[in-house]
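Moderator note: this is an archived Q&A kept for reference. The question asked for a predicted structure of one protein chain; the sequence and the answer are reproduced below.
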Amino acid sequence: MSGRDADVAIIGAGVVGAFAAYYLARAGERVIVLDPEPGGGASAGNAGLLVPSYSRPMAHPRMLAEGVRALLGGSHDITLRRPLRPATLAWLARFALAARPGRAWRAAPRLAAMSARSLRLYTEFADAERLDIGVSDAVGCDRRAAERLDIGLSDAVGRDRRAAERLDIGVSDAVGRDRRAAERLDLGLRDAVGCDRRTAERLDIGLRDAGLLTVSRDRRMLDAQRRTAERLGRLGVASEVLDPAAVADAEPGLGPVAGAVRFPGDALVDPLDTTLAALTAAERHGAVLVRTAALRLRQVKGRVTGVDTEAGPVTAATVVLAAGTASVRLARSAGVRLPVEPGHGWSLTLPVAGPLLSHAVLDLDAHVVLAQRADRLRLTGGMELGGPPAPPTPERFAALRRTAAVLLPGADLDEPGDRWHGARPMTPDGLPIIRRARPGLVIATGHGQLGMTLAPATGELIAVDLTVGSRV
């Protein structure tokens, strides 16, 4: 590869980069996606949750208390890998500021609106690209909230504030740009899908509106979850409190619990299949996927003009940096510092003989998610910060299995299963970084535990910024 030109070069073929490529390619942009392992990283082994119920950022007072316990070695929610790097200590200090009671919920309306929009976009994506995903329109969120993004990006994009705050990219007159470009974008994906609908390859991302059941054996924990759910309800996130009998009716295979809070609007996907489906759809619309690693960003007089890769240089009018935790190193090559810390997690995927769960289940006591897809049960947990990268100990996976055995006492979970570990890109305040950082450079990272949830809305936002408006 030498001197390959593109309108947009996207570094990272995880779920965020994949959806950015999809929406940009649909808008007619010449797109190159760079990644040595498309669909790898945090997009491969996560729980696959689409969760408006996670709209309260991780930076909140209870988690701050857990962070203090982690420093002392006594936390079950967060663990700190030593020795702590200076960058991790600085991140923890910013996290502490963001987690103060007066600030903890400020970001929640933005995340709830963006999550709701993403769930609608998943359904529209499935319809446009011939996916059979079985998701209803009832996403459990207020439609007015779903149609507004307001994720605080207006200052970064440097344009009309009203246009920057709208996500309903159908596109309204508020955009105030070339109507042909606006109509060409039409990210509602209704009619012109750019390929023969009858002959389009069917893609399956395993998406279903299962709902999330958050359970605990501790009444105090349930009371705290109920209070969180009440506040989320003001943002349009639906929930219901279940007593033990109602939990048994909803999930007969679960062991004894004190109760649950159910979020019926949450959904479940196969994370790897979803990422690969978005990449395949992007390629249908003209995107080019190049399996190579990005080495550094190229600049001319302060403007990012492309990427140096292991396969040679790529020139582009705009570079979108969507490489998860690797974005930190690559951004630094252009003089940009990102407050992103790797949050290491792990999962264990076990073969199972039959249906065990109709919901995704979050054990609030152990902070482990159980999600079943067909004949596979995935157990996901862990939030480890700091220290040099290292694989999880066998005890980490054993703890996942023990939690599942308690929750599903009648299930056979003795098979070895498939182990995975990876790093989520975490920001101190829990908000993803989606902004222009330099002329010619857009950052799209820091989604933390919401990568799958927020990916379509992130991709749509980037496509609108780069195609409806003029490039910076």
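Archived answer notes: Residues 108-128 form the longest helix (21 residues).
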